[in-house]
Write a structure and sequence with these properties.
heterodimer, A: mainly alpha, MetI-like fold, 2 domains, 11 helices, elongated, B: alpha/beta, 4-stranded antiparallel β-sheet, binds adenosine-5'-triphosphate, binds iron/sulfur cluster, binds magnesium ion
């Protein structure tokens, strides 16, 4: 069998059937398949998760496209999100959707569609960096703490608790005053730092359980070094749980960023984010709800999608550990 | 039987264990999981360690291998492996022994393989790390090993994850990994308890075969005397952290001395004999290891227990032959034992009554065990 995607193999390879059904030796493979389908629920991706993935890829693709479109200088049909089409002399500054502006324009006559697509970038970057920080630092620190135990563990967890207790807004304001800018980097760093504790705790709890598993003892019994055991045996087993949490966490992070933008504490205007779009649309809400509706919808859909995919992944991780 | 595989070879003692004690300190008190165990093992020989759940078999083998047992553990005594004092070695020095000279096969093949790494890679990496060979050589060796443990279509299973294999297959993989570097001694801690009966025999045969081919020493831990019958040179029966009877396998089966061993024998399920053989469980529960009973630890459950047993703890003593040792005041088969039994029967001691119910099958049990062990022939 060639080295293919593991999920494909899972379908092909059951307990006692020969690995490659193509070869078809001795046993008849037919009843196994049904038995297995019953045994491993959650293997198949539900339609909601598929739709969710579709939406997420739209957002991600859009954000990346918008970003680089911008860098390349208006080469493609997406408007500059900062371009204020008819600021002067028109009575109606907000426009309803048309072929020129798919989603209409906002209070400053900026193309809502362009701003929506661009706004995804901030959400994307903040969520990605927070999740990366969490999984990498939080995950490794937690695995380490859970494996070494004793005093080191207590010190690490105490420090983590300090971070957890830190008010996010205060930290953000402090960082902003230190760096003098509310750039995407600063915002991402702060939110990333604040995301670490949760991952640390999950990783530590999982490690505590895993360290008593027989395969860890078995690794020791064949002379595997402690360091290797920690990062080759335990961490990969913590990872699926961390990743499943990461998706759910990403949704929460996007909401947090949205809140910060809404409060005007995220990236500097006029850089569009979903949060500040809602905030800006608020003032003219009596006139039209559309400029608020679009970013709200995007935010809701994204959060929902992330949770869907996260749930699905979690289910899969559970199936896998149940199959052990 | 006891000369199997050793003809014409003078084997030296590879492992000497003296008065080994492993105690766990708990808030409630000291758990004496292993409490003064001594034995030795020659190269190429197999020792069966038998006892109920909780008798300290796992703790014993893990102590000898110096595997992590927790922070609250207190170990004393001596373990000498090829003239090295194992208990005084550093973890670094142990690293050179683990896998290379001592290896272990674990009870549950469901959990003894890393669930997220393909089995081929698990074997290959282990081979590479220890044998210092190139990637392709390691892969070839790994395949060889997998074939060696009779994994059908080893090439195809190379890329499988552990959960895609059956329990028996997984245990074969574990054995392949344990044997990869040609250890001098293999600990098999209930290697078949988690498997079903037919697979059990295959795995045990495989272990036996490998042990003989490699002339390796093996400690086979089990709670089932039926498993060790015919597969080991010697048997040590453990009860509450102590060895209560120790003998060459055939001798143990044909001349049972300790009441606990007798009770274990009576609890071997037999498939080849008809009805009137009732499977008798041993009355009562294993003792509390923090506050063990006074005197003989088996006395609360022993059908022959007398006042002396409850006051004074018997120590290991030799039976007819020096090779056969047991710790009991009223050994099975002696007139004193018979007398004690009748006395207890008259006094209607519950465990004695329970024992008497199954008594009819006594002779056939022994015969059967002897047949199983291939002894005498
Ligand atoms: N880390 C520990 N701390 C405290 N007590 C322990 C610890 N490990 C084992 N024990 C105790 O030591 C005793 C012996 O356990 P052990 O696992 O060696 O039994 P066993 O003979 O292997 O039984 P089984 O057949 O169930 O595997 C048990 O009573 C157990 O509760
Ligand atoms: S010493 Fe007494 S209680 Fe202990 S096993 Fe022998 S007869 Fe039974
Ligand atoms: Mg055990």
């Amino acid at each position: 069998m060639s080295t293919t995607d593991p999920s494909v193999q899972e379908l092909e390879l059951t307990d006692e059937t020969p690995a490659a059904p193509r070869k078809m030796s001795r046993q008849s493979p037919k009843p196994r398949r049904t038995a297995k389908a019953a045994k491993r629920p959650g293997k198949k991706m539900p339609i909601t998760a598929k739709l969710a993935l579709f939406w997420l890829s739209l957002v991600v693709f859009g954000a990346i496209y918008a970003k680089f479109d911008n860098l390349l200088g208006q080469r493609l049909p997406l408007q500059d999100p900062r371009y204020q089409g008819n600021l002067f002399g028109t009575a109606s500054r907000t426009e309803t959707p048309s072929t020129a502006h798919f989603l209409g324009t906002d209070v400053l006559s900026r193309d809502s569609f362009a701003r929506l697509v661009h706004g995804g970038w901030v959400s994307l970057i903040v969520a990605m960096s927070a999740v990366t920080f969490g999984v990498v630092f939080g995950g490794l620190i937690g695995t380490f703490a859970g494996y070494v135990k004793g005093r080191t563990e207590r010190v690490i967890m105490a420090l983590i608790d300090v971070i957890l207790a830190f008010p996010a807004l205060v930290l953000l304001l402090a960082m902003v005053s230190i760096f003098q800018v509310r750039s995407l980097t600063v915002i991402s760093l702060v939110i990333g730092l604040l995301a670490i504790p949760a991952y640390t705790r999950i990783a530590r709890a999982n490690t505590l359980a895993l360290a008593n598993r027989e395969f860890v003892h078995a690794a020791q019994a064949i002379g595997t070094k402690r360091f290797t055991i920690m990062f080759r045996e335990i961490f990969p087993n913590v990872l699926p749980t961390l990743l499943a949490y990461a998706l759910v966490n990403a949704a929460a992070i996007i909401v947090i960023e949205g809140t910060l933008s809404f409060l005007g504490l995220s990236v500097q205007l006029p850089e569009p984010t979903w949060g500040n779009m809602i905030n800006e649309g608020r003032s003219e809400i009596r006139q039209t709800i559309l400029p608020v509706l679009w970013p709200s919808l995007a935010l809701t859909l994204t959060v929902l999608s992330l949770n869907q995919v996260g749930d699905w992944l979690q289910g899969r991780a559970e199936v896998r550990s149940a199959a052990l | 039987m006891e000369s199997r595989g050793t003809v014409g070879r003078v084997d030296r003692k590879i492992l000497v264990v003296e008065d080994l004690k492993t105690h766990f300190k708990l808030p409630a008190g000291m758990v004496k999981a292993v409490d003064g165990v001594s034995f030795d093992l020659k190269q190429g020989q197999t020792l069966g360690v038998v006892g109920e759940s909780g008798s300290g078999k796992t703790v014993l083998s893990r102590t000898i291998m110096r595997l992590t047992l927790g922070n609250n553990v207190h170990t004393s005594g001596r373990v000498s492996f090829e003239d090295r004092d194992i208990l005084s070695l550093s973890n670094k020095e142990m690293q050179k022994i683990w896998g290379l000279e001592m290896a272990m096969v674990f009870q549950d093949p469901m959990t003894s393989l890393n669930p997220v790494v393909k089995i081929g890679r698990q074997v290959t990496e282990h081979v590479r790390k220890h044998l210092n060979v190139s990637k392709s050589e390691a892969k070839a060796t790994a395949l060889q090993l997998l074939k060696g443990v009779r994994i059908p279509e080893a090439e195809a299973r190379f890329n499988a994850y552990p959960h895609q294999l059956s329990g028996g297959m997984r245990q074969r993989v574990s054995i392949a990994i344990a044997l990869a570097c040609g250890p001098k001694i293999l600990f098999a801690d209930e290697p078949t308890t988690a498997l079903d009966v037919t697979v059990q025999h295959q795995i045990l045969n495989l272990l036996n075969l490998q042990q003989q081919e490699r002339h390796m020493a093996m400690i086979l831990v089990t709670h089932d005397l039926g498993v060790v019958a015919g597969r080991t040179n010697d048997i040590a029966v453990m009860y509450a952290g102590k060895i209560v009877e120790k003998a060459p396998t055939w001798m143990l089966f044909s001349r049972v001395q300790h009441p606990y061993t007798e009770a274990l024998l009576r609890s071997i399920p037999r498939t080849n004999q008809k009805n009137h053989t009732r499977l008798s469980a041993i009355a009562g529960r294993p003792p509390d290891l923090i506050n063990p009973p006074q005197g003989c630890k088996f006395s609360p459950r022993c059908p022959y227990a007398q006042d002396k047993c409850r006051e004074e703890e018997p120590t290991l003593q030799a039976a007819q032959s020096d090779e056969h040792q047991f710790a009991c005041w009223y050994p099975v088969g002696t007139p004193e034992n018979k007398e004690a039994f009748e006395k207890n029967l008259a006094a209607q001691l519950p465990q004695t009554l329970a024992f008497a119910e199954g008594k009819v099958v006594d002779e056939s049990v022994i015969d059967n065990a002897v047949a199983l062990s291939g002894g005498g022939s």
